[in-house]
Amino acid sequence: MTDSPTLKALVLGCSLKTTSDESSSELLGRQVLDALADHDVEGEVLRVADLGVKFGVSTDEGDGDGWPAVREKVLAAHILVIATPIWMGQPSSVAKVVLERLDAELSETDDLGRPSMYGKVAVVAVVGNEDGAHHVCAEVFQALNDVGFTIPAAGGTYWVGEAMGKVDYKDAGPKPDTTGAAAKTLAANAAHLARLLAATPYPAS
To answer: I want to staple 122 with a disulfide (CB 3.0 to 4.6 A). Which of 21, 67, 144, 191 is the partner?
Structure first.
């Protein structure tokens, strides 16, 4: 723990399932949040599939769109965690909807003209029963960086089961020396970077 002000993190669980079903990707996202707590970061987890987020690339698609409420939480957070399963070697469709909605931030700026997501840190947690974790991280990192997020060193953690296997991360048992260790490194680096950016923001272009 540090004497620095408490940082806030938001985990967006991008499972295809609602909260009526267990989610391995959300479990890993919660484990990242637990690791962040060791660095005086508090936060919450949202299951995006529950929230009525509409397709689109604006900050508000109207008529009951759930994204504006999610966006307010993103704006309030110092660290964003995208937790996604792998489907067909890709981030989930829910994760892609989140990234498409964040595209609107390219047009949103602060009082100094900086993009709205400048100064925020983003990390990724990935699970799947097929290979592709590095590819998924790369896709999500690039999209997040495009809209202004900063990616820390070792900013991804993942678990991939045996190809064509039936075991999910939530059923595979603790992985403290692999996925767990990566989550701890991710959390330490994300918290460190978020504090640096909070203390010394990016200059205006």
So the answer is: 144
